[in-house]
Amino acid sequence: MTHTLTAVDLDAAAAALRGYGAPDLPHHAIADAVASDPDIAALAREHGWADGEVVDKLWAVVCVNVLGISFTEQVGRYLSRPQELADDVEAAVSARQVAR
Predict the structure, then answer these.
(1) Is 68 within 8 Å of 93 (Cβ atoms)?
(2) Superkingdom, according to UniProt (predicted)?
């Protein structure tokens, strides 16, 4: 079952990601991540967007989608260089917005 994200969902997800150290992401980047892994929305409905498991999974999927990297690479970069990973995601999202 798919879950349509509301503006409230997207705002809550964005706030949870910012609290996690992620850059301020546009709603479409979050919606794309949730669309590619619907389990995130199900977990968020059950536990809330700020839940550690939800935000971990959401950030991993955002990184994989935006940067085109594997989950293994995402984990390695998150553990060794979390700020660089966040900076790379922010730059990639900004570049995509300019291209639109």
Answers:
(1) no
(2) Bacteria
